[in-house]
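hiii so um. not sure if this is the right channel but i have a protein structure encoded as tokens and i wanna go backwards to a sequence. like what aa goes where. can anyone help
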């Protein structure tokens, strides 16, 4: 692209001539305040808070709609600009209810931030404010407070341009303008809750999260959504060791700045759920009974030893991490000697054109690449199920996957002589299990997943388990540091006696006579990077916040 030279606040920059002033400034870390402009939407130019002075132009110009030109000299903070900005903010605040103390957006509100930073700090308006509806259900997941709306139109443009459904509109004029849905319509597209993120004020709020917590009481951990093979980048918001919300994290290679409503609402509630597996369990006299880890590990080791290698099948999981699946596949080959290894696919619907994938698992590609696939004469998932039916497969050891919920599986499980599973929550498969290990959820462990684009991405613990707490207690720390890390990071909420799957498998291997020298998920990932082509040269550090692409051609999958 041909470049032009512009001067911003006295500093010269070379920028792409197609950029607007706000884009050029942003690229060069010069902040121009804005409400209606959003880098993923078309420009509307209606809030006027981005006014700047361009030399030789008689009037102030809006930075979001003024294209740069060679030799352009722009002032973003001289007296004239500051006066105009203060006037715009005063104007926007005239009818704003100023109910920050009860507003969910407080703490992450653009209007609140700009009012502190750029306004005069007082109002000359003594007349009555215009009142509008305060609690409108504009859709199944979103509430509107019309008084807080500053008419930026971001939400309207999101529905039109990203979700592809024209569901929101302004009605009326002047200070009576109001956001609404079309009569009889609702804001119910599959991506509707993104409007909450991009609304610069607290006009649109998440019905699921409303009034649950002030944002400054929460910790936020970078992770990925595990609702489908996209692996949208998210932040997990936690208070008192309980997840309260997910929201999208920017990654232009994966999800831009969006996520779907299903991912935002449904994928994490199992972490807080009552039906979590709270500790290992063994079936005694027909009932699953809670036992210690050593007893459950010894039981599985001795049971697996009692079957011939062709009588055993192992099922990895497209819900578990690369590390879990890698250690599991290694165990199957090196310790059990079975070739019957695969995992269950979970396909539903079709890929859409925004983000949603038909593959409802986060790591099918990763599970396969790190070794969870039948080798040579080994049995695939379907053949394993047929083998159980025929009585050839007598024992199954399975990672985190409710494979009994798939068609035609539940009825054959009673034929098994032994079933051991790792599970985060009670499910149809645990009903048939002889041993259940309490597995850490994706929000309680470190690791990586590989999405459908062959992109390796990190997950990190957002909530803590008993095991992590104990490790923290044994760690050399001052009492104050311990207090601070327990309470600030995780708080005093519930803990589960769960462990990452790779660690449970490694413990069973140890009891069966094969010691794996993995102390943490990094160690496992480092071995994957040494042993598996395509991962070579990677590390947790290199995968970082945004992930790293694998070379697809490296894999015969
Ligand atoms: S509801 Fe929010 S995003 Fe929509 S127009 Fe109003 S202020 Fe803008
Ligand atoms: S598109 Fe998939 S990964 Fe992204 S938020 Fe939705 S379910 Fe989660």
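sure thing!! here u go:
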């Amino acid at each position: 692209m041909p470049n032009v030279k512009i001067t911003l606040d006295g500093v010269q920059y070379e920028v792409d001539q197609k950029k607007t002033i706000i884009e050029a400034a942003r690229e060069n870390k010069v902040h121009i305040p804005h409400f209606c402009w959003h880098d993923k939407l078309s420009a509307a130019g209606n809030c006027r808070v981005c006014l700047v002075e361009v030399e030789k132009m008689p009037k102030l110009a809006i930075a979001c709609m003024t294209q740069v030109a060679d030799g352009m000299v722009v002032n973003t903070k001289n007296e004239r600009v500051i006066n105009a900005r203060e006037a715009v903010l005063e104007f926007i605040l005239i009818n704003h209810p100023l109910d920050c103390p009860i507003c969910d957006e407080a703490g992450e509100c653009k209007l609140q931030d700009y009012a502190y930073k750029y306004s005069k700090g007082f109002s000359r308006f003594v007349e009555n404010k215009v009142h509008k509806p305060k609690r409108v259900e504009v859709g199944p997941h979103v509430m509107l407070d019309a008084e807080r709306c500053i008419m930026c139109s971001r939400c309207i443009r999101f529905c039109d341009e990203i979700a592809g459904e024209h569901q929101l509109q302004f009605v009326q004029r002047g200070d009576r303008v109001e956001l609404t849905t079309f009569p009889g319509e609702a804001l119910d597209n599959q991506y509707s809750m993104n409007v909450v993120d991009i609304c610069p004020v607290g006009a649109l709020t998440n019905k699921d999260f409303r009034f649950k917590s002030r944002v400054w009481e929460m910790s936020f951990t970078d992770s990925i959504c595990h609702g489908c093979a996209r692996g949208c980048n998210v932040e997990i918001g936690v208070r008192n060791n309980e997840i309260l919300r997910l929201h999208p994290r920017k990654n232009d290679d994966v999800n831009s700045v969006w996520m779907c409503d299903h991912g935002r609402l449904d994928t994490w509630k199992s972490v807080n759920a009552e039906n979590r597996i709270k500790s290992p369990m063994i079936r005694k006299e027909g009932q699953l009974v809670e036992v210690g880890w050593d007893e459950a590990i010894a039981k599985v080791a001795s049971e697996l030893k009692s079957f011939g290698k062709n009588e055993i099948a192992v099922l990895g999981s497209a819900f578990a991490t690369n590390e879990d699946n890698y250690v599991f596949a290694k165990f199957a080959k090196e310790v059990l000697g079975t070739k019957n290894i695969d995992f269950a696919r979970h396909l539903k619907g079709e890929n859409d054109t925004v983000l949603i994938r038909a593959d409802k698992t986060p790591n099918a590609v990763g599970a396969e690449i790190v070794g969870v696939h039948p080798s040579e004469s080994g049995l695939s998932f379907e053949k394993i199920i047929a083998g159980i039916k025929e009585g050839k497969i007598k024992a199954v050891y399975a990672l985190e996957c409710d494979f009994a919920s798939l068609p035609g599986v539940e009825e054959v499980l009673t034929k098994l002589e032994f079933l051991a599973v790792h599970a985060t929550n009670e499910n149809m498969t645990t009903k048939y299990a002889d041993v259940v290990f309490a597995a850490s959820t994706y929000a309680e462990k470190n690791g990586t997943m590989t999405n459908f684009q062959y992109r390796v991405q990190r997950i990190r613990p957002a909530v803590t388990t008993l095991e992590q707490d104990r490790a923290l207690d044994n760690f050399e720390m001052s009492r104050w540091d311990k207090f601070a890390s327990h309470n600030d990071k995780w708080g005093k909420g519930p803990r589960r006696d769960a462990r990452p799957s790779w660690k449970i498998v490694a413990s069973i291997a140890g009891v069966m006579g094969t010691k794996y020298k993995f102390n943490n998920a990094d160690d496992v990932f480092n071995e994957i990077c040494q042993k598996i082509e395509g991962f070579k040269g990677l590390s947790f550090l290199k995968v970082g916040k945004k992930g790293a692409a694998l070379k697809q051609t490296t894999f015969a999958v």
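oh and DSSP finds 17 helices and 23 strands in the chain.
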